[in-house]
Amino acid sequence: MSQFEDAKARMSSIHATYERGEDSAGDERPLRGYIALLGAYAALTAAGAAVVRRKGLPAERPGPLDLVLLAAATFRVSRTLAKDAVASPLRAPFATYQGPGGPGEVMEAPRPGAFRHAAGELLICPFCLTQWVATAGVLGYALYPRATRWVTAGMTAVAAADAMHYGYARLQQSAG
After folding, report:
1. What is the pTM of this model?
2. Does 131 or 175 have the greater pLDDT score?
3. What is the DSSP letter of 2?
4. Which residues of 111-123 are buried (b: 16+ CB within 10 A; e: fewer)?
């Protein structure tokens, strides 16, 4: 079996168990996995800070408008990564499908195993992902401020549009 066929078979197996909702990790506390994730977060943050220092970039703080855009964009990106049905393939190796969630969203549970459970908890929780996404955004402002402003403005528009969709749906319910 070629490497491609082997990888395809593994992904097919992951997809099948994901769809059946198998491998739910229950109340297991994967401390080794948490340690690995904390170490990865610390290493990535330190590496980003080292790049900022090495490039000799000015230590400007993002302005108030940048922080508003970053907050809204962080919300939307975190929610997209953690809950959107379209992003399920990114979470499938670490989470199992449990059922539908909100509009366009799914509910999932982490898979067992120290690392898979910890990564699954991180990837299915928009609150947990927020710290990672916000850190990436802040580093983005330091390294690529113009591009980061464009991306955060776009994701802020998506978050605002989501709020309008929910408001419109509520108006339709109260009128009907």
Report:
1. 0.81
2. 131
3. -
4. bbbbbbbbbbbbb
